[in-house]
């Protein structure tokens, strides 16, 4: 199951997929509804650069001001996210930090099956599988890399051998300079501090979150 589309009416009569297109036609009662299916394109916009997966094994970095572009061979991209000067690109085996020209600034081999990544302007990147997330302070010209830390989906340190709750897995993540949000299948959203890596609180929703974002100050009060 990938998406759910809710439409008004009582009884669905017919469903048709337009040939060579991404449009659906749905007949409900005496009405016809049209829906456009949007594929999940992998991209990140940061600074003046748009980075996007341009084929199965390449990522294009396009400067939206000068219209210059750089193409890198990066196969098996799972997810990507960018902010200010850097973007993080997750593949099936590596986390890659690239600048606005597509130059690799840091990389971290991984063994977990990463599904989601996020990054903030303080050079902190977070990568998550369905059950574990990693907080990684990557290297920059002004700072050396700091060892990454791993946690279960419920915030328990991975080294403790406890926690995990495998039946309530991670479904989305996002972060700001100070906070990290972990969304889970049950509808629970966990709020963590990126200053001390401690859980602050949890928020219970009535439905599974798909995507999250934080505003410019992301203050929690």
Structure summary:
Pfam families: Beta-prop_WDR35_2nd. With 221 residues, the chain is mostly beta strands. The chain is 0% helix and 50% strand.
Tally of strands: 19
What is the strand content? Answer: over 45%
User: For the largest beta sheet, what order do the strands appear in spatially?
Assistant: 4-5-6-7
CATH topology-level fold name of the largest domain: Methylamine Dehydrogenase, Chain H
- CATH H-level homologous superfamily name of the largest domain: YVTN repeat-like/Quinoprotein amine dehydrogenase
In one word, what is the shape? globular
Task: Tell me the count of domains.
Answer: 2
The overall pLDDT, averaged over residues, is: 87
Radius of gyration: 20 Å
Q: What class would the helix/strand composition place it in?
A: mainly beta
Largest sheet: 4 strands, antiparallel
The CATH architecture assignment of the largest domain turns out to be 7 Propeller
Helix content: under 10%
- Pattern of helices and strands: EEEEEEEEEEEEEEEEEEE
Low-confidence stretches: none
Domain IFT121 second beta-propeller: 55-218
Organism: Pararge aegeria aegeria
Keywords: Repeat, WD repeat
Protein name: Jg26048 protein
Explain what the structure shows.
This is Jg26048 protein. One of its GO terms (cellular component) is intraciliary transport particle A. Residues 55-218 form the IFT121 second beta-propeller domain. Keywords: Repeat, WD repeat. The chain is an all-beta fold and 221 residues long. The protein folds into 2 domains: 1-39, no CATH class; 43-204, YVTN repeat-like/Quinoprotein amine dehydrogenase (Methylamine Dehydrogenase, Chain H), CATH 2.130.10. The chain has no helices and 19 strands. The chain has strands at residues 12-17, 23-28, 31-36, 43-46, 49-55, 58-63, 69-73, 77-83, 86-91, 94-98, 104-109, 116-119, 124-128, 132-137, 146-152, 170-175, 179-184, 188-193, 199-204. The chain has a 4-stranded antiparallel sheet, with no helix packed on it. The two termini are 36 Å apart. The mean pLDDT is 87.
């Amino acid at each position: 199951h990938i998406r759910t589309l809710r439409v008004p009416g009582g009884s669905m009569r017919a469903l048709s997929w337009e040939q060579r297109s991404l449009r659906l036609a749905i007949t409900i009662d005496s009405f016809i509804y049209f829906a456009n299916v949007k594929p999940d394109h992998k991209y990140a916009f940061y600074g003046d650069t748009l980075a996007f997966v341009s084929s199965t094994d390449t990522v294009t970095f396009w400067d939206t001001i000068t219209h210059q572009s750089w193409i890198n061979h990066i196969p098996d991209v799972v997810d990507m996210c960018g902010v200010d000067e850097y973007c993080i690109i997750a593949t099936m085996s590596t986390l890659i930090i690239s600048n606005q020209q597509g130059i690799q600034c840091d990389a971290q081999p991984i063994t977990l099956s990463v599904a989601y990544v996020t990054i903030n302007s303080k050079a902190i990147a977070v990568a998550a599988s369905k059950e574990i997330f990693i907080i990684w302070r990557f290297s920059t010209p002004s700072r050396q890399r700091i060892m990454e830390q791993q946690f279960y989906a419920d915030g328990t340190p991975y080294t403790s051998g406890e926690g995990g709750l495998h039946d309530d897995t991670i479904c989305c993540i996002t972060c700001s300079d100070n906070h990290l949000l972990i969304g889970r299948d049950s509808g629970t959203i966990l709020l963590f501090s990126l200053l001390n890596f401690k859980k602050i609180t949890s928020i219970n929703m009535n439905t599974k979150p798909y995507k999250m974002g934080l505003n410019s100050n992301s203050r929690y009060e």
